[in-house]
Structures are given as C-alpha cells and as structure tokens.
Amino acid sequence: MTTDIASVKAIVFDTFGTVVDWRGSIIADLTQWGNDNGIDADWAQLVDAWRGRYEPQKDRVRRGEIAWTNIDDLHYEALCTLLPEFGLSNLSDAQRLHVNRVWHRLNAWPDAVAGLTRLKKRYVVGPLSNGNIALLVNMAKHAGLPWDSIFSCEHFQRYKPHPDTYLGVCRQMYLEPHEVIMCAAHNHDLDAARSVGLRAAFVPRPTEYGPGQTTDLEPCADWDVVASDLQDLATKMGV
Question: What are the structural domain ranges in the chain?
C-alpha cells in the first residue's frame, strides 16, 4: 500500500458493472423466465436498449425537467416504452413488475464477493450507486454482497456525478474526502470523485457491455489504485 492511500478508512463502490454483471445477469434471468412462461423475445437487444435509456432518463432529473425519481421508477418507465418494439405489449402489470425487478436480482462478478469480504476486514465497504435503497438491499441479499452500509443516491436526491453524492458519503461517515476511496470500472465516475477530494481505484470490466465493448478498457488517468479485479484490489489495499 502506498502512503497516498494509507489514510483510507472506507471504500465505496460503483455497483452496476463494477460489482455486478448487470447485462449478463439480466439476459440470463429473462431468458429463463421467458422459457418458463412461453414468452419469446430478443432479450439481449431489449437489455441493451433498456440500458441505453439509463443516462438520458437520469439527465432529465439532473436538469430539473422532472422531480426526483428513483431508478426503479425510471427503469419501469423506460421498459414500458420499449415493450412494443419487442413484441411484448401484452405483458400484464405483474409481469412488467417482475421484469423491472430483474435489476434487484443481479449476480456478482466471480471475484466480487471474495474481494469485498477481504476488504471489509480493514475498511468500511458499501455501494455508492445510483440504484435506490430497496434495489441495492435486495441485490445484496440476492448476490451475497457483504456490505457494511448502503450509500444510495436516493439518500442525497442527486445522481452521480453530482458532488453531493460523493461528499454525502463522507458526511454520513464523519470522514474527510481523502479518507474515502471510490472504486469503479468507469473513468468518469472516478474523475468526479477525485474532483471533490476522494481517492480513486479503477477496476476494469471489459465485458460489462458485451463482447464489443470499446469504453473503459483501461485507466485514463493516474488513479491511486489500478487493480485487475476486487481480489487484486484487496491485495493492493494491504488485506
């Protein structure tokens, strides 16, 4: 461990993509559900289109075009607009809710649980995620994520990369920004965290968006820590 990160007391994690494999999990879950219920669709294309609405929807909240709306509700709105394109207009309300709640049933990357378990021996660990509280709690239960606490943007009524999200964790934990390290597979998230004084750890997830991913394949700055996965992060953090 370098002296630059020796003062770190807490590690917060981007969750979608960094800790859990959202794309692979959703495709597998909905494929099985479709098979069990006789519902056929191109689930991979639906998932990609659904995720494609993610940033534009949050931008509407960020710009104040709509009031604060949590991720579950934004996901549901996007899903309902996409269903006709995939021949799924006839899904019942209960089926739509089940599909939308797939974000609560995401699986961790293979290294994540073991890496987090090691890290929490020395550090406070928790998600700093745009996901809402219920989503993050249910996901942790499903995937076995050993969080010490949940830091949801719902607490702050702001979406990342607003400074209030990163600094909100510091305030809640009575820590200075340099005592918190943000871990993410997305360079822009780390850039925002560093801009308000947090440390930054990059862990690449080169298949987060599928085999054709072209972004965030490597660090784009001299982050405090660069690790191959969360097990490697634990090693580099001295655990």
Answer: 10-21+106-237, 23-104
Amino acid at 2: T
* End-to-end CA, the chain: 9
- What gap in Å lies between CA 147 and CA 1, rounded to an integer? 22
Answer positive or negative: Cα dihedral of 231, 52, 129, 3: positive
| Residue recorded with tokens 């994540």 | 112
Phi, psi (rounded to 5 degrees) for 161: -100, 30
The pTM of the full predicted model, rounded to 2 decimals, is 0.95
The architecture of the domain spanning 10-21+106-237 is 3-Layer(aba) Sandwich (3.40)
The highest-level CATH class for domain 23-104 is mainly alpha
Instruction: Give tens-digit pLDDT for 223-236.
Output: 999 999 999 999 99
Q: How do residues 148-193 score in pLDDT, each as one tens digit?
A: 999 999 999 999 999 999 999 999 999 999 999 999 999 999 999 9
Q: Is the dihedral of CA 144, 149, 155, 159 positive or negative?
A: negative
Q: What distance lies between CA 101 and its chain's CA centroid?
A: 15
Q: Which residue blocks in the chain are alpha helix, DSSP H?
A: 22-37, 43-52, 54-62, 71-82, 93-100, 112-119, 133-143, 153-156, 163-173, 187-195, 230-236
Distances from the Cα of 119 to the Cαs of 123, 149, 198, 232, in angstroms? 6, 14, 18, 10
